[in-house]
Amino acid sequence: MKAFCTQILMKADGGYDRSTTMHDTLDDAEKQFHQNMVTAMSKQDYVKAIIFVINEDGEIKFRRVWKRGA
User: Is the overall model pTM greater than 0.90, yes or no?
Assistant: First the structure.
């Protein structure tokens, strides 16, 4: 079953970045989820990250909203 990892990254200047990746397994999508969060938290440009994983049926499997300084 396919799984998708989506991230929305809010920048300090009001802009944002976003991406979605497709994975063959939920485990692979979860690894991407954690890597995306580490990357977002490490870059000072980002003040907020919304990252989630859904399966091909649209069910949310993982979701986290992180905010710098919170």
Answer: yes
pLDDT tens track, the chain, 70 positions: 999 999 999 999 999 999 999 999 999 999 999 999 999 999 999 999 999 999 999 999 999 999 999 6
The answer to whether 37 touches 16, Cβ cutoff 8 Å, is no
Lookup result for tokens 């692979």: 28
How far is residue 10's CA from residue 49's CA, in Å, rounded to a whole number? 6
- The contacts found for 50-54 with CB under 8 angstroms, 24 or more apart, are 50/7, 50/8, 50/9, 50/10, 51/5, 51/6, 51/7, 51/8, 52/5, 52/6, 53/3, 53/4, 53/5, 53/6, 53/26, 53/29, 54/3, 54/4, 54/6
